[in-house]
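Researcher: Predict the fold of MSMEG_0569 family flavin-dependent oxidoreductase.
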Amino acid sequence: MSVHQLNAETRSRTDVIVIGAGQAGMSASYYLCRAGIEHVVFERSERFHTWKNERWDTFCLVTPNWQCRLPDFPYRGKDPEGFMLKDEIVDYVEGFAGSFDAPLWEGVRVTRVAELAEGGFEVDTTAGNWHAAHVIVASGGYDTPILPAFAGRLDDGIKQLHSRHYKRPEDVPEGTCLVVGTGQSGVQMMEDLWIAGRDVRLAVGPAPRSPRRYRGRDATDWLYEMGHYDQTIDQQPDPKATEAKTNHYMSGRDGGHEIDLRQFARDGLQLYGSVSDMEGGVIRFLPDLEKNLDEADRSYMGIRDAIDVHISGQGLDVAPAPAFEKVWRPEREVTEIDAVAEGITSVLWCIGFRPDYSWLKVDCLDERGKPVHRRGVCAREGVYFLGLGWLNKWGSGRFLSVAEDAEFVVGCIAERLRGGAERRARG
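Model: C-alpha cells for MSMEG_0569 family flavin-dependent oxidoreductase follow.
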C-alpha cells in the first residue's frame, strides 16, 4: 500500500481520480491497478474511515460473511454463515487493501470538480490542483446526518445525538432515551440500550423488516438462491421508489436474529408512531404506529411467502415453518407526550444521512441532487459513481456486488482510454 505524502515533485495530471477510499473506491483502484491505468485515490480522512470510526462498539454485519466479496478477496474465515463484528470487518477490508499497491493519498479533501474547456476535469484538492480525464465519485452517501427542522425547538435540557455519534450505552445520559427511526441502525441501537438495561423507547417509522432464519436457512441464503440479488435496478417496477427504500431491519448480533418490535412491546418497550413535531418539552407523534408495524410485517411475510413458493416450485423437502402471529398490538395511539415529565433525557436520531455533492460542479445530478447514471456511468463522459445503494443491484452499496460494479466502471474507462489512444494514433 503506497500512502503518499504531499510533496512538490508529485505530478498533478493523471488518467483517473478516485474520490473516496472506502470499499467502493479501493475496489476501483484494484481494477485500475490491474489494468495498468494511471490514477490516484483521494481520501479526506483515512481509508475505510467509516468502518473504523463511525460504527458503534457492538456493530456487526447484517448480511452473512459469505457475502463479503471484495475483488479477488472473498471472505476466507471459519464462519461464512456468521456475521463479522466491527473489528473483524476492519481486518477484512485492511487485508484487501494490503493485497495490492493502491496510489492512495490519505488526508486529502477534494474541494471542487469542474469541467475543462479542452476536455477532462479540473480537481481542486487540499493537495493542490489536478487534471484528469476521468473521475470516479466513491465518496458514499453518509456525509450529512439528517435531522428534522423541528429538532432545534426541543428543550435544550434534552440531549440530542445522531446515530453517527453513538458508540455505546454510556454515551447516552442517565434517564430515558427516545430512539427515533427503525432502519437497521435504529433497531440495533435500541436493542443495544435495551440489553444494557437502559430505559429506552422507540419511535417507529415505516421501515420494512425481514426474517432472519426461515425454514432451516438464513433468509438471505434463500434469496440468493432465488436470484433476488441478481435483479438489476432496471428490472424493478419503480426504480426511483426502489432506490428510496429503507433497508429491512434484522440483526447479526449473537449469531443473528430477527427483530419483532411487537415482541419488544410485549416485553415492556414503549413504542410510538413517527415523530411529527417538537416544541419545548413536548414531542408529538403521528398516529401511524399500528400502520407501520403492519407494513413491516407485510414485508416480512412477503419474503416468507416468496421463499415458500421457491421451496414448493423446486420440490424441496423442507419442514414447514410455524404460522406467523402478531403477538401485540397497540391499544391506543399516543400522539403527544411531555418529555420532561416522562423522564426523557435524550433523543437518539437514527433517520439516515444525505450525500453532499456541493463540490461537484458537473452536470450529472437530477433535481433531487441525486446522481444520474446507468450502472455508475454518467451521460457526461468521464464521470462515474460507485458504492451507492442500488447502483445496479441490491448489493451495489454492500460487499456483495461492489466489486462487480467497480470492474464494470473500470472496463468502461479502459475502453474509452483505448479509443482515445487509437484516435490520437490515427490523427
